[in-house]
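Here we describe the complex-level prediction in full. Unlike the single-chain runs in Section 2.1, the two entities below were treated as one system.
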Amino acid sequence: VLKESKRAVNSILVDDDDEDEEDVERVSWSGEPVGSISWSVKETASSIRSGSEQSFPKIDTTPSLSKQGSGYSLSSLFKAKSKPGAFQSFSESFSDTSSRTYAPELRKPKSDGKDVVSDLSPEETVRRMQKGRAFSLEKFRSLQDKLLLLDEAVAVYDGNVITAVLIFLKKSLSKEILFRELMARDVALRHYVHYLKEMGEQKLLVELLKALGRTEDMALMHYKEHLNIKDESRRRDFLKSCLSLPFSQDDATHVQDHYTLLERQIIIEASDKKAVAEIFKKFPRKASILNMPIITTLYYSCFYHYGESEGTFSSPSNIRKTFRISEKQYILTALGARAKLKSWFDVDSLFNTKNWLGYTKKRSPIGFHRVVDILHKNSAPVQVLQEYVNLIDNPDLKLGGALKYKCHDIVINTYRDLKDRQQLIVYREKLERDSPEYRKIQELLNNVQIRWKN
Amino acid sequence: MAHTEWRDAPELPDFSLLKRLARDQLIFLLEQLPGKKDLFIDADLMSPLDRIANVTILKQHEVDKLYKVELKPIVSSSDQLCFLIRPRIQTVKWISDLVNADKVAGRFRRYKIIFTPQKFYACETVLEEQGVYGDVTTDEWNFYILPLDDDILSLELPEFFRDNFLEGDQRWVTTAGSALHLLQSVYGSFSKVYGIGRCAKMVYESWRELMEEGEQRTRQPEFAKVFLVDRDVDFVTPLCSQVVYEGLVDDLFRIKCGSVEFGPDVTSSDKSIKVMLNSQDKVFSEIRNEHFSNVFGFLSQKAKNLQTAYDKRRGMDIQQMKAFVSDELKGLKQEHRLLSLHIGASESMMKKKTKQDFQELLKTEHSLLEGFEIRECITYIEEHINRQVSMIDSLRLLCLLSITENGLLSKDYRSLKAQYLQSYGIKHLLTFANLRQLGLLEEQQAGETLTVMESKVGKLVNDKTVGKLTDAFSSLAKKSNFRALSKRLALVPKSGEEYDLRVPRDMAYVFSGAYIPLSCKLIEQVLERDGWTGLEEVTRMLNGQEFAVTGAPNPRNKTDAQRIVLVMFLGGCTFSEISALRFLGKERDTYYVKQIEYMVNIKLSI
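The structure predicted for the assembly as a whole is:
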């Protein structure tokens, strides 16, 4: 239906001109006309002060905007809502840098008067910091005062101020003392950890986590560094140095794998880069194998190094054993690789098992319907497909597969076993006249010994 | 078929005012740096800026050249450089390096950083530490809210989720509070505030502080109520595959800042086209909230109608033809173009979704939501991982399994994690650590690990603090209680019942009738009860942190505004939730405006 409607739409002949083109693609830089600033000012201003019946929110009755009087200008509008520090014009602040009205650190502003600012309580100081007004932290010298300041910042939920206070504490307290105090302050601690992460202060961060007893986090943090190392041998050496870190038991295994994997990939890459074997000429490598996941590496090895003895690093069996790959995963990967190469013989032997009498039997840890899917995706011929469709356990899936992949024999036999004469007749019509399948159905339908159910 | 327009819909506040305010402030800030200047813009600010200003406006205010911030050395001959950026330490470090490089080269320039939506002390400290504080002046552009559509507002802060929920950094709390404050200043006071979640509570507090000091506004309010909800109250919904049209477009093509880029496979030409997706697009606005199984029928009907309209031309005389061309043709051509795009999009949607065994994926998700045949689900997820298909889908399924089952059994967790790392790369053990921290993917444990952690820390600190730590740790190990919640709130309809997706009967239609989004159900319940009364058990399972506050009394005469509710998702929301709320609004004769931090399409990587 969709295709039809699409065709219908496309077939409607309308001459496309450039103007229409724009109608749809108009996304960039399309704004409304400017101007109208005065309007918005008026709109905002007139909305002030009209009643008194409010219970929520608690409002203090000093409308600041109305004081601006009639001289509405753009700047006065924003001045009313914004922080004073933001409104120095560029030229002012540039020519007289010493008179900045606020600074994040210990700077004492000239204009505000030092007594006013430096005698403020933690509450008032934090409040001023929130507003972006002038403040001074140098009064907070005793540990107790520093912590009061920090706790106050946490109490008002302002992450920006919490971090600002932490920066101050970082500079004015020894790290041992700071770490100790942060242990009991989870919110502040998380801000501090995040700040150090963003600043790239890896060393200090590792020390902090160690002091907190968060050794696993520390190990992961350290391990993460490998992502920034581009050169593969340096990366490998770095991963090696990670092996002694206090990971959880599971992660220790994974990191060990990571190191082993990269080590092998480097060896394989070095030799395959100049490999001359037939397979490399027929199917030139599209990318290097470095830093690929384990399964991709296994696929690669099943593709280029199938049948090598377990002693070589690049052999599938070696990779399978080293990285404890499950049978299911192995079969799935090997199947994909061998089917891609159309080595149906290899595919066959993947599933062959011998029982104690020496008979071969096909067995698979993944459903045979999945096997068929994979084979089909790699355009396996019908003879191959048919064999695996036949192995599907679930009768519905089996019939579905047979119909989908045109395995006539299976379809016919299934209908015969179901004694479903009608379906056979229907199916016959889909076949070429006088083809062997057609004739087979014909014979069945003529067979008087079958008791059809319909 | 959907009708986005319904009778008697209340008039929505005019959000273009917000754009105008933001634009005017930007112009003001640019004027603070008179003379010609080059402007460097943060990459993720480009699209939001696109929505409120244009190049001409910038040029009018003496912006000479525009550059994208790429954290690389620059080539600019201008004497004045202006940087329009998010307050990020990395960007400020880069600017400091530029300034210092100029200093070494003996080059004199003026530098100005405009932080948006606000500046952080940490950023200014970088300027100070790098010795360029004073050489660089800083300003704030309080561009808090970007209206994305008639009923969607966004803060466009993609880092909100990670910073707040993963890192535990509350730097955006006041930003969200300020955004609410701005809305209130422009559109009047709210009469009622509801919320749930730790962040929601903090945002409310920060907003209340602002209100207390702020100027008085008692104009007729344009909103009635606000609902604040933390993303981590409902992690289940964003983990489900989306099946409403807009959600699917987002899953497949990524909708960014209200627009999407359709590639050549959709446009059936050799180029990509950027399209705005909003209520202006008449075709889109009719299908955006629809289950995708309905969309194709609708589109083909549309195509037939269009054909008929074009066919009118036949047999027209000159006069009629002239009228047709001037009155109708342009509209038809516009519709024609939109129609082919959406048909193209649906087509490639179908292709991709069948290739990825979409039906099987959906079936697994539904089983997980229902708590049915969990073993089979695990086997499916395992195979999904083994086949190395979509890394993100595998992770989504794992998280959904963990949340719905209150964590994975130890042996399952270990085996699935090991297989995941084998398939997609060992470095993802960092991803697993992050997901554990977020509570999205956990290993069930008998309290052992926590005790070990505590006693380790306990050796280092005194007893009182150990108590506090225990609290902190146990809050980290909170349970999702999804099954019980789902039962209590009837989120999963009884299986076996037919669900007619063409005539949705509840919000479950956004997930094919299999699940009502928890977040939206909560909103519905609270608004219905005008508070949390009767939902005590539910909030207990959601770890509390709920609140409801009454503010200004309702104006006596019932106005449209009484029916408008602002829902704020802290940490982002999905298009499915938006569709569900639109549906709820239609049912309850209430209109919901959604304010969000960012459209999430969960990306959970390192």
